[in-house]
Amino acid sequence: MLRVSLAGSLRDEQLDPLPDELLAGFRKSGTLPLIFRVRLGERDAVAEAIRLIQDPKAKADERLLFARAMGEVAEPTAVPALLAAAQEAGPDDLRRASLASLSSYDQEEIGAKVATLLPRVSGDVRTAAFTLLASRAKWSLRLLDAVQGGKVKVADVPDDVATRLRASAEPQVADLAARVLPVKAPVAAEFQKRIDEVTAILKEGPGNPYAGEATFTARCANCHKLFFKGGNVGPDLTQYQRDNLPTMLLSIVNPSAEIREGYQYYLVQTTDDRVLSGFFVDRDNQITVLRGLEGENITLRASQIKAIKPTGQSLMPTGLLDGLGDQQLRDFFAYLRITQPITK
């Protein structure tokens, strides 16, 4: 499960949970790398990690690794460094990881600063900001105030986040979310109508997969991988039934109709009053690793989990095809159905 070599080679991947017994064994041997000393809570190691997060001249993969580690260690002195990294004009993966780690803390300033950041970010960084604000009731109110005040568009709020807010155990959050973010509930007939419309459009002519790649990059690649391109939030599409158009259309138009095994969407309530969402990357009797829409892993010990609730919904939003013209749709599906990579 370990994705970083014991010689100290740091990569931009996330660390999977390491058993406490194994960590203690490394510590006893005197050969423990800095990242593991951080995870053991050694004060000088934590201070050095925070310094590296704040240093724009430090190696990018080190900054990313330690930003992620701060979400597990939950060291309050790391908050200013994580907020600064989230707001700097730096790599998106560092900003996203910093926002994900900040959910482990409960300072009021976090919600205030991230709420003001929302209108200035885009893509998966914005998704991470939404996810963070939805994780705690007091921050959720700031998000909803921004939506109500027109600083954030209703259409920009991810379905996953809106679902969490409407289901909040805090009445003030749930009531405001119900008014500001009313539930979208298309009926099955509407889904089928849209599937029939797209099917007819695709039959009208051929598509250009090279043109369709741009649509995939903009609308799918943050979550899904096709061959070697894309993210790892949702299923890898490479081995998916992409030659079966009806199945693919149903998955895109109504993603909750059939959720692939391992990608069930859960709401997780923690003992420190967070509400998190995502699917389980790993889970045993000690550790649960949850991956949300922003693509970051959150590691929780069994003692940190108060309740887990499956929602029966997919993390993938509906309306993925909205706004695409007829030829764009043909190009997009031509790209989705390629049998080998077409670009490097």
SSE arrangement:
Blueprint: H1 20-29, H2 34-39, H3 43-54, H4 60-73, H5 79-87, H6 92-102, H7 108-117, H8 123-133, H9 137-148, H10 159-166, H11 171-180, H12 188-203, H13 209-219, E1 225-226, E2 229-230, H14 245-253, E3 266-270, E4 275-283, E5 287-291, E6 297-301, E7 305-310, H15 326-336
Antiparallel strand pairs: 1-2, 3-4, 3-7, 4-5, 5-6
Helix pairs in contact: 3-4, 3-5, 4-6, 5-6, 6-8, 7-9, 9-11, 12-14, 13-15
How is this structure best summarized?
By secondary structure, the protein is of the alpha+beta class.
Global geometry: globular
Largest sheet at a glance? 5 strands, antiparallel
* Percent helix range: 40-55%
CA-CA gap between termini: 30 Å
| Number of strand elements | 7
Strand order within the widest sheet? 6-5-4-3-7
Structural class: alpha+beta
Radius of gyration: 21 Å
Order of helices and strands: HHHHHHHHHHHHHEEHEEEEEH
Mean pLDDT across all amino acids: 86
Question: Stretches where pLDDT falls below 50 for ≥5 residues?
Answer: 1-15
How many helical stretches?
15
Strand content: 5-15%
Comma- or semicolon-separated keywords:
344 residues, Cytochrome Bc1 Complex, Chain D, domain 2
Give structural notes.
It is a single chain. The chain has about 350 residues and is α+β, with helices and mostly antiparallel strands. It is about 45% helix and about 10% strand. It has 15 helices and 7 strands. The strands form 2 sheets. Strands 6-5-4-3-7 form a 5-stranded antiparallel beta sheet, with no helix packed on it. The protein has helices spanning about 20-30, 35-40, 45-55, 60-75, 80-85, 90-100, 110-115, 125-135, 135-150, 160-165, 170-180, 190-205, 210-220, 245-255, 325-335; strands at about 225, 230, 265-270, 275-285, 285-290, 295-300, 305-310. Residues about 1-15 have low confidence and may be disordered. The longest helix is centred in the middle third of the chain and has 16 residues, at about 190-205.
